[in-house]
Each structure stands twice: as structure tokens, then as C-alpha cells.
């Protein structure tokens, strides 16, 4: 059903799912942040021994494709539950972050491709 | 602008941002999965020494609230870029996962609250 | 045998184990860092839904105790292989770090117990 | 001093360091597992955008070499404190794990080099 493919609707379904199983006492922001981190690592585990090229082809194998998609769902599930618990709008948070990054990291002129990945690291990972 | 608060629109903005900075060669699925995991850990770092109760109050301090919101944005940014690269619809993936979990983990009857967190762990973290 | 309980001896055993299975091409520092991170998350997974008190009792259950010990072994295995590959002496690295931290974070006088966990966070996680 | 380069001696120094700063109440096994995971991710962050080849050269740059060594120290510090708190001998745990893995994953004959990284993944990451 289409209404499920909407962030607030998914958050409602996740909240109902947790409530029906009496999991709310375990769903502190700290625990959800830990669970989010654990699920993100389970996604990374699929890629840990792959070459860059192999990593681009994971969806060609149906079993691996299912596993990747499943871990994506787990990461998103904990991210949405974390946000719901703390009253954070994740899409608004990301839009605001992109706005800030566009000011902070102006696009280089087209002839200056970066050749230093460590520079990229800084740009990627900090505000 | 409203169109920014939509997953595909945010993915378009992220793709344009990366392209303008010539980051695509670094954005292999493997690297994006690593970056997602790193950002999830940065979110966890905020909570690592907090008690469960303290973790519920992080939004009361404006500076911590900003930091939490910012890390949420980073996690979502890498998750959406990862999904874009592999052709995964994250909202559909989550909706399908909830569907499966509703079949696999029927809600207990209301008088049987779980008292064994390790049981919950299994339910939470595996399909 | 006693000689196995020594860091260089364990590194030799790990290197021989990997070589016999032709894993060296996969054991780049990047991949070993990813694997270390994944194993650390598997250890965290055991604790993610536990209260602080429950987390102190994990060794009372033999099965959980085995699982915890096993994940500790995995974390150490990847840490030692990572260090071997890059020529880092992990025990010397830690001794040097403690030396630096003793200078950088002087112990408070005994009557000034910290009451702000976020201060501890900074002290713990950065040099 | 030589005695510092010994696991029990390092554990003693770490325990004294934490005690002098009144950090023990924060050092639950759960929190230390989270901190270990966070530090492992900080190590991974250094490598996240690097090619496999670049990742093999990180020690050539003194500043990056220092950063890598420092994160190794942080990972080991939390691993040793975690083990100390739960009465786990990390070197014995690793020796026992290698013993088990030698039985479970017999070395292939020399002419059968693995060509399927996902097979290796299983061997690497589970007992």
C-alpha cells in the first residue's frame, strides 16, 4: 500500500510494532543508537572483503541483494525509531545539513578534480 | 522548500553535491557502507557514557541537540547515497521488512510481557 | 602452550593461518579495519538491549560468556593482524598513549568527582 | 619501562587511570563495548575513502601514522578495560579461538586458492 512508503507512516508502523511487543522500555535513545550502529556494521560486513569493483556488483546475486536490502531496512528502522523518540525530523535534518554543506564546501571549479582523498574525508565526515 | 523533504529529492541533491565535487569515484557501495557505519558510531559516541535516563534528555541541551540532529543527517545522507548507488528503495525495503516481521514475530498476548531482553535481541536484529 | 599467550606469538599464528588459506590479498589495512569494526559491533550487539546492571552479569550465563569471549577473540585477532600489517606495536602504542593522557588529563583532586558525563566523553575519546 | 609492555601491566595502568578520575561508574561492560566500537570506527574512518593500495601506505605519512597508532591504542585500551571488568583473558581467548578455527577451517591444499571472497567472509567472521 502506498501510504506505507512515507516516513511518518513507517514510524507509526514501527511504533505500533514495538508497543505490541512491549519493547518500549528497551528503546531508549542510547539503545537505539547502539542498535543502529550494530545494523550499519552488519551492512558493512557484507562488503568487508570485497574489492571496490566487486562491491559495485552485489545486487547481481539475488541472495546477496536480499541481504543488502534487508540490512538497509534494519538501519532505517532504527534510525526512524531513534528520531521518533527524540522528536527529530530526519528528512528536515538532512535538508538543513545539505544547505549548510553547500555554503561550507563550495564546489570546486570544474578543472580542479580532487586528488587527495584525505581532503575528501574531512569534507564528508564533518559539518 | 517542501520538495526537499522527500527521499528522491534528497537523493538528487546528494548526487548533485557529490558530482560537483568529483566524489563519485570514492562513492563505491563498500566505501559508502563504511562511511554509514562510521557516522552511526559518531551518533553512538554522544550516548556512550550516558545512563538510560540521561540518554532520554539529550535534546534538552541545544548544543547536544544540534550534534545529535547533525549526526542523524550524516547517517541518512550515506544511507540514501548507498541506496541510490545500488538501486534500492529504502522506504520500500523497510515496509517489506515490517510486513515480514509481523508474520515472523507475532505480537505476544497482552498479559505476556517479555522479561528476557536477550529474546528481544534476536527478534530485533535478525529477520 | 604458554608461548601462545604472547602478542608476537599470536600474531605469528594468525599470519600463518591467513597465509595457509591464501587470505593475504584480502587483508589490506582498510579491510582489516572494517573487519575490526564489524567484530566490535558484534560484541556490542550482545549488550545493546541490556540495562547497565544486566551488562555486568553477562558472564554468569555460560552461553553468553562464551559468546562474549569469542567476540573478544575476534576483535583482538583483527587488531593484531592490522598492527602486524602496518608494523605497529599495539602494546607500545597503548603505553605511549597512557603516558600522554596522564599529562593531558591530570587526575582531579579526590574531592572533585566529575558529575558531567559529557566531560568524561571528551577525555575518553580524544587524545 | 619494559613492564608497561605487558597486558596485565597495561590493564593495571588503565584501571588506576580510570579510578583516579572516578570513571568506574561509567565503565560498565555495556559502555565499554560501545566505546570500543566507537574507537574501532574512528580507526576505520581514516581508511574509508582510500583505495586498497592507498590503505597500505598510510604509515608513510607521519601525521596519518600517528593518527592510526593513536586509534589502535584507543581500541586496545577499551578492549583491555572491558576484559578486566569481566575477568576475560584476551590473549587466552584468542589462542583458544585459533585452536578452534584450525579444526573448523582446515587449510586448503596449496593449489586451491579461494576465488570467492564471500566464502572467506564466513570463515573470517564466525566461529
Task: Explain what this protein looks like in three dimensions.
Chains A, B, C, D: InterPro entries: dCTP_Pyrophosphatase, DCTPP. Chains A, B, C, D: One of its GO terms (biological process) is nucleoside triphosphate catabolic process. Chains A, B, C, D: GO terms for molecular function: nucleoside triphosphate diphosphatase activity. 4 copies of one chain form a homotetramer. Helix content of chain A is 68%, strand content 0%. Chain A is mainly α and 127 residues long. Chain A has one domain (7-104): MazG-like (Helix Hairpins), CATH 1.10.287. In chain A, α1 (7-20) crosses α4 (62-86) and α2 (29-47) packs antiparallel against α4 (62-86). The longest helix of chain A has 25 residues, at 62-86. The radius of gyration of chain A is 18 Å and the shape is globular. The termini of chain A are far apart. Mean pLDDT of chain A is 87; it is low at 111-127. At the B-D interface, α2 of B face α2 of D.
Query: How many structural domains are formed by the residues of chain A?
Result: 1
Order of helices and strands of chain A: HHHHHH
Oligomer classification: homotetramer
The CATH class of chain A is identified as Mainly Alpha
Q: Which structural category do the helix and sheet elements of chain A fall into?
A: mainly alpha
Distance between the termini of chain A: 37 Å
What general outline of chain A do the C-alpha atoms trace? globular
- By DSSP (H or I, 4+ residues per run), the number of helices of chain A equals 6
Amino acid at each position: 500500500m502506498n501510504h506505507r512508503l512515507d516516513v511518518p507512516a513507517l514510524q507509526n508502523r514501527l511504533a505500533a510494532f514495538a508497543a505490541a511487543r512491549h519493547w518500549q522500555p528497551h528503546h531508549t535513545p542510547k539503545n537505539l543508537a547502539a542498535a543502529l550502529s550494530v545494523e550499519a556494521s552488519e551492512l558493512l560486513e557484507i562488503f568487508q572483503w570485497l574489492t571496490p569493483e566487486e562491491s559495485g556488483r552485489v545486487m547481481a546475486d539475488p541472495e546477496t541483494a536480499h541481504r543488502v536490502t534487508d540490512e538497509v531496512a534494519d538501519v532505517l528502522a532504527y534510525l526512524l525509531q531513534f528520531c521518533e523518540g527524540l522528536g527529530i525530523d530526519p528528512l528536515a535534518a538532512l535538508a538543513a545539513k545539505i544547505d549548510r554543506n553547500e555554503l561550507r564546501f563550495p564546489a570546486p571549479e570544474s578543472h580542479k578534480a580532487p586528488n587527495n582523498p584525505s581532503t575528501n574525508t574531512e569534507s564528508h565526515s564533518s559539518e
